[in-house]
Amino acid sequence: MVRRIINEACGERERAERRAAIRSGRIGASLTTGLHARAITASRRSPEPPCPCARSRSRIGDRRMRPERGKDGTMGSRVTAQQVADLAGVSRSAVSRCFGDGQVSEETRRRIMAASQTLGYRPNAIARSLTGQNTGLIALLLAEIDNPYIDLVLKKLLLAIAEADKRALVIPETRQHDLTGSTMHALDYQADAIVVLGGTVSDHVVEQLRGLDTPVFQFGRQGGGLGGVACDNEMGGRMGGRFLVQSGRRRIAYITKAAATDANRRRRAGFAAALEAAGLPVLEGVAQDNGFEGGYQAATRLFSAPEPPDALFCFNDIMALGALQAAATFRLRVPEDVAILGFDDIPMAGWPAFGLSTVRPNLDLQIGKLMAMLLEIYEGAPARRTVDLVQPDLVVRRTAA
Amino acid sequence: MVRRIINEACGERERAERRAAIRSGRIGASLTTGLHARAITASRRSPEPPCPCARSRSRIGDRRMRPERGKDGTMGSRVTAQQVADLAGVSRSAVSRCFGDGQVSEETRRRIMAASQTLGYRPNAIARSLTGQNTGLIALLLAEIDNPYIDLVLKKLLLAIAEADKRALVIPETRQHDLTGSTMHALDYQADAIVVLGGTVSDHVVEQLRGLDTPVFQFGRQGGGLGGVACDNEMGGRMGGRFLVQSGRRRIAYITKAAATDANRRRRAGFAAALEAAGLPVLEGVAQDNGFEGGYQAATRLFSAPEPPDALFCFNDIMALGALQAAATFRLRVPEDVAILGFDDIPMAGWPAFGLSTVRPNLDLQIGKLMAMLLEIYEGAPARRTVDLVQPDLVVRRTAA
DNA sequence: CTGAAAGCGCTTACAG
DNA sequence: CTGAAAGCGCTTACAG
């Protein structure tokens, strides 16, 4: 055992005296006394001879080279709970309880709120995170950064997270099979959960993420033992295939990039099943990429064949738009000569210029389910391990009817 | 003065003894001794009779209901610097220095790195933020959430921020004239800087942000006394106008939504100046919105007039695409009958389907300049107060030549 | 180069 | 309901 002598108690005593004074009405809790309170605090912090902490304080105060108080009287976020406590004549604990979910008397709450108002106090979320139950941060791992569908997902998710009063730490992950150092750093912020957006990330990365002690969810991706939500891609493929078959098409092609992402495999499987049920083969349309050019070129190749297809089902809308352009180049009438069907229902698909028929994932429902899973962990529930599949809708516009 | 007796020193002594043992070679710094070290730590934390902190610890340990050690041997991020220090036989300070920019001897660094490796230690960024110079967080205030150009900006900025080893806290701001509570909360995370993306946010919001003690920058917006970067919109407007004039157009319209955003005002001013220099008037094309439909309808109205324009300069590419569609509806040849010019050069503009001529902001240069400003504040420089204008380029494709 | 101590701004049992 | 104390996981002068 060792005894240590701590000399900050004088400040404590001053504070207690002041509290008594405020309560007895000898001093009012006004801005003026607030300044007074600050003077007391300061004297506590740097007794003569000036103690080391004074040096340290000023350095930190300096670090952003801004005054403690804004020119317009609003305070910067440097006001601390102690300052509020001093001005209100209560303890720091009371202030904490008042801003947290603790019990505070009406009178105390009133004083604290008034003081906070005056000083412009807002609790430091970082300090809160260090000691509290959670950080309020949700890390969004953006795997497919140039997928316009993911753009949509990201925006809706950002809105939903803000709505739930959480914060989004957005991390662009440029590697597919490993985590970048930048991502690792972002993960050091103790996010309450991680959401992997998009289907291109490898199972290995998912495995790495599972090694962390943070719940991980996936959006638009299945497998890897992670919970999450996804569009029922197989169902979507089946819906598309069935629709084309029923509208009398016989030479039906599926256009996609060769790479076997999970979403692609499933859409294709459902599609193939639908054609097979009708005794039809799947014509192959291989694209260089999953973008406009890819769709354009794959369709061009198909249209140049001796027996061109009478229907195209494209892995996504952008490719379908490329295919649409190819059809125009070949002077094919859409949908009379060739039906074109996309997937995703990006905003552009609905533009009158295109009138693209497509399979629309129920994005809002997916986001809703994901948010529910996310919020469950704040209730102390263990992270889900299953992927919730959400059924898409067929949107019939002009390009396939 | 008050004397306080602190009983944690026993743990300290044990630690010191152990350090000596490790150094003298009596114990090796292996995984096994690592577990041993943890046992010591544990005994320090809960001496018999079990002290209160044991309770508190277990609660916090429980809070995520995960074991201290993953099934595959990887550690969760719950390993602390103290554990590494114990295993390496050094002080917590040494570990901190090793992961920070402090001075550490080669041997010490080796031991610490080995121990960290074994335990899977990564410094807790939140704790670091609380005590360190900065948080490494950059708040991105996303004002125009459905502007596809801002999508592009956001992605590039996310990449640049990750590249600079900073983290992006992305905040969707749905209100134009005030900050939402959600945004206020996000700002409580002590971001090192705030970047306002997009031009639609009001000066009042900018004023509120300036009240915080965090440097604020703006992207694609001028005024309000905030530093930042923006496309030289006036110059862009002038380039567009001059180009149309020089290609022989005489009845030139400017299409935009009536609302007077800053970018709109400037583009229009430059454009009008170019036409005026040629003695030409600006034909007005008023749109409902700044999207595809808006462009389509405004163009439709212009084409229906007794003397339709022979050139359209649109506020942005999406509107220009709408106008292009309107031209097709009117069976107008582009560019022979009517030239169409956009602004932004979104990826779609370059698709062969459109071949949209447009004014291209130099996005990479803008991002580069913004990042430079952002990084300056980490050097202790005061936030810049001026907006750097970056000159755009004219991209001539098929719709105006 | 190194360790002990103090501190960052909060929260949370604990004991009134 | 309230305050004093301990603690969250780090960093950083300070004094060797």
Automatic annotation (TrEMBL), chains A, B:
<protein>
    <submittedName>
        <fullName>Transcriptional regulator</fullName>
    </submittedName>
</protein>
<keyword id="KW-0804">Transcription</keyword>
<keyword id="KW-0238">DNA-binding</keyword>
<feature type="compositionally biased region" description="Basic and acidic residues">
    <location>
        <begin position="59"/>
        <end position="72"/>
    </location>
</feature>
<feature type="domain" description="HTH lacI-type">
    <location>
        <begin position="79"/>
        <end position="132"/>
    </location>
</feature>
<keyword id="KW-0805">Transcription regulation</keyword>
<feature type="region of interest" description="Disordered">
    <location>
        <begin position="41"/>
        <end position="77"/>
    </location>
</feature>
<dbReference type="InterPro" id="IPR000843">
    <property type="entry name" value="HTH_LacI"/>
</dbReference>
<dbReference type="Pfam" id="PF13377">
    <property type="entry name" value="Peripla_BP_3"/>
</dbReference>
<dbReference type="GO" id="GO:0000976">
    <property type="term" value="F:transcription cis-regulatory region binding"/>
</dbReference>
<dbReference type="Pfam" id="PF00356">
    <property type="entry name" value="LacI"/>
</dbReference>
<dbReference type="InterPro" id="IPR046335">
    <property type="entry name" value="LacI/GalR-like_sensor"/>
</dbReference>
<dbReference type="InterPro" id="IPR028082">
    <property type="entry name" value="Peripla_BP_I"/>
</dbReference>
<dbReference type="GO" id="GO:0003700">
    <property type="term" value="F:DNA-binding transcription factor activity"/>
</dbReference>
<dbReference type="InterPro" id="IPR010982">
    <property type="entry name" value="Lambda_DNA-bd_dom_sf"/>
</dbReference>
